[in-house]
Specification:
With about 130 residues, the chain is of the alpha/beta class. The chain has one domain: Glutaredoxin, CATH 3.40.30. The chain has four helices and six strands; from the N terminus they run E-E-H-E-H-E-H-E-E-H. Strand 5 and strand 6 form a beta hairpin.
């Protein structure tokens, strides 16, 4: 598990960005975070390599620990790949703790589309491209 610390107004916030190792851990994450952005990706995927640092940066700018960015490598987690019917990468889903549901997928590496997807589903990312 990797955490990023950000200093905002002399208060440290820990922003979780996790690369999934054990699929069973998802149950714990569902209890801890109100919204989880699940990124299905692969190490060999060019578009994934472009969007991952951008979405990581946006998550690092959040000033709450209510949201989690969960990176799932489809080559390591075939079971999750099959369960979510992942055919292309990157593919994103948002899990909502309050409704215990998953929002329809976004299949895009465009950071503007991904940012809007997050904002429209309750993850308050900045719309800035910087």
């Amino acid at each position: 598990m990797r955490y990023h610390m950000i200093l905002l107004l002399n208060v440290y916030y820990i922003m979780p960005i996790i690369s999934l190792e054990n699929p069973d851990d998802i149950r714990e994450y569902k209890k801890q975070f109100s919204k989880i952005l699940i990124q299905f990706s692969a190490e060999w995927c060019g578009p994934c390599k472009r969007v991952t640092p951008l979405i990581n940066k946006k998550f690092n700018l959040l000033n709450t620990n209510e949201h989690l960015l969960l990176y799932v490598d489809i080559d390591k987690h075939q079971g999750l790949r099959n369960f979510f019917k992942i055919e292309t990468v990157p593919t994103f889903y948002i899990y909502d703790k309050d409704s215990d549901s998953v929002e329809p997928a976004l299949r895009s590496s465009d950071i503007v589309s991904l940012t809007k997807y997050c904002i429209n589903n309750g993850i308050p990312l900045t719309e800035s491209l910087y």
